[in-house]
Amino acid sequence: MAGRFTPRPTRPTLADGRPVDLRLTLGPLRRGPGDPAFRITDDGSFWRASRTPHGPGTLRVRAGDDGVEADAWGPGADWLRDRLPDLLGAADDPASFVPRHRLVLAVHRRRPGLRLTRTGLVLESLVPSVLEQKVTTAEAYGSWRALLRRYGEPAPGPAPEGMGVMPDARTWARIPSWEWHRANVDGRRAATIVRAARVAPRLEEAALMDPPAARRRLELVPGIGPWTSAETVQRSHGAPDEVTTGDLHLPGIVGWALAGDRAADDAAMLELLAPYAGQRHRAARLLLLSGRVPPRRAPRRAPGDITRL
């Protein structure tokens, strides 16, 4: 699931006057504090470097006096501008969400600007999700940084120093095995990304499908299962109901927050979220934002480093 972000006091609005919290809405697109493709600068600007269907592009979004202000550069600039409303959750409808628990209601009221972003880019969400399979987030973020710095390209326009656009599908498919190893990516995850890159046009078609159909398309690629497909469409589609299963922590968080059950598994989590059918992902995000997590009993898993093998 996406991590937690502290909202700024400013509350920019969409064109229709509805509030949008830029940190909460765009936060799931950031893959760690050192993500070359995402940056938050001291002036409150959110920078995002993307590989669009028209080529690389850089987008800057910030809260202005009259709402959200945005600029874009590069061959993909027009594409990014055209899809800015979707990115900021204009198509999302949190007003249709009906809280069924007191805790969910409280968080929902405290976070009126939480919207589910929709990037319309599948591979961009898929690759880092594959990197996050079965490893710590710190390991995955480190691999993402290393691969973008090695194989990406500088972000167009006046982007902050060090920002870069992820490689295209052809480049992902041609990364040699020793470079995956150097980036601390095991052979299984590397092979999954290579297979996905080789059929990237077919996967990008999924951006026009409804989320369940898109997930089925993604899961045709060996190595992509329910966890990865859910994490992908949550970002590419802004999917309010595609809750993540197979996660190490989420069932326990949901179980603890709603039923005091820290040992909840996927089945128990889905049962607890059943009253939110159609909005289960949103409900799970609100529970993550509540900060009500079970006390830790075991030590954190130590990050692995295959580069030393």
From TrEMBL:
One of the record's GO cellular component terms: cytoplasm
Claim: DNA repair is one of the keywords in the record: yes
InterPro entries: Alkylbase_DNA_Glycosylase/TA, DNA_glycosylase
Keywords, alphabetical: DNA damage, DNA repair
Gene Ontology annotations of biological process type: base-excision repair, AP site formation; DNA alkylation repair
GO molecular function: alkylated DNA binding; DNA-3-methyladenine glycosylase activity; DNA-7-methylguanine glycosylase activity
Source domain of life: Bacteria
Keyword flag DNA damage: yes
PANTHER family reported in the protein's UniProt record: DNA GLYCOSYLASE (PTHR43003:SF6), DNA-3-METHYLADENINE GLYCOSYLASE (PTHR43003)
Protein name: 3-methyladenine DNA glycosylase
